[in-house]
Design a protein that fits this description.
This protein has two domains: about 5-120, Cholin Binding (left handed beta-beta-3-solenoid), CATH 2.10.270.10; about 125-220, Arc Repressor Mutant, subunit A. It is elongated and about 80 Å long. A hairpin with a 2-residue loop joins strand 7 and strand 8. The chain is built from six helices and 13 strands. By secondary structure, the protein is α+β, with helices and mostly antiparallel strands. It has helices at about 125-140, 145-155, 165-170, 175-190, 195-205, 215-220; strands at about 5-10, 10-15, 25-30, 30-35, 45-50, 50-55, 65-70, 70-75, 85-90, 90-95, 105, 110, 120. The strands form six sheets. It has a three-stranded antiparallel β-sheet with strand order 11-12-13. Pfam families: Choline_bind_1, Choline_bind_3, Lipoprotein_Ltp. It comes from bioreactor metagenome.
């Protein structure tokens, strides 16, 4: 009678000492595994109940920090993927709903650096407030892209704000960048009779509107 791990047609299964195929959670050698309803060993991301877990290629449940495709995630001691604000050690981090760690942004009044570490902004300076007000004007009145507004805010020929103030403004302006792209696209269509292809190129051009390809495509898809 076969017991333990068995590879059948390229798939791993675990057979209990009784020979019965295991289903669900199984702790072996101090490591946790999850066998789905067919008994096959789980790997990669798996949603079990309402919780996401990550299982290594050998089936072991991951815990702690995990880097995947250049993005960082954090799984607690029970393997659950964390989202929202999390204090890890003495440092606060923010994880989006997808589990990806936030970097280089401002969330809930906290400045998050390239390492993901959050630092509460105790006092929003007048420069930050002015940069935010100016960013809102550029978004609401001129329908500019995120990149274009940032560049205008820090430009020595433009608003001359510090990079920190400009980033704070971009992070807190609450603009709908796709809708801004659509407004720009309609302007090019109505005032210059440009083709959809030419409008798209203008929207994504680094010498033009500087929208992302996704934002530009949304605009093109929604032109009348």
């Amino acid at each position: 009678m076969k017991t333990g791990w068995q590879k059948i047609s390229g798939v791993w299964y675990y057979l209990k000492p009784s020979g019965v195929m295991s289903i669900g959670w199984e702790q072996l050698g101090g490591k946790w595994y999850y066998l789905n309803n067919s008994g096959s060993m789980s790997t990669g991301w798996q949603q079990i109940g309402n919780t996401w877990y990550y299982f290594e290629g050998n089936g072991q449940m991951a815990t702690g920090w995990k880097q995947l495709s250049g993005k960082w995630y954090y799984l607690n001691s029970g393997g659950a993927m964390r989202t929202g604000w999390q204090q890890i050690g003495s440092t606060w981090y923010y994880f989006y709903g997808s589990g990806v760690m936030a970097t280089n942004t401002t969330i809930d009044g906290w400045r998050i650096d390239a390492s993901g570490a959050g630092r509460k902004i105790e006092n929003v300076t007048s420069e930050y407030k002015s940069a935010l007000a100016k960013a809102k004007q550029y978004s609401d009145i001129m329908s500019m892209s995120k990149r274009a507004i940032y560049d205008q805010l820090v430009s020595p020929y433009g608003e001359k704000f510090s990079k920190e103030a400009a980033q704070y403004a971009i992070d807190n302006v609450n603009a709908n960048w796709k809708e801004n792209a659509l407004k720009k696209a309609k302007m090019y269509q109505e005032s210059m009779a440009m083709s959809p292809s030419a409008i798209y190129d203008q929207l994504i051009s680094q010498y033009g509107e500087k929208f992302t390809p996704e934002e530009a495509q949304y605009a093109i898809d929604n032109l009348e």
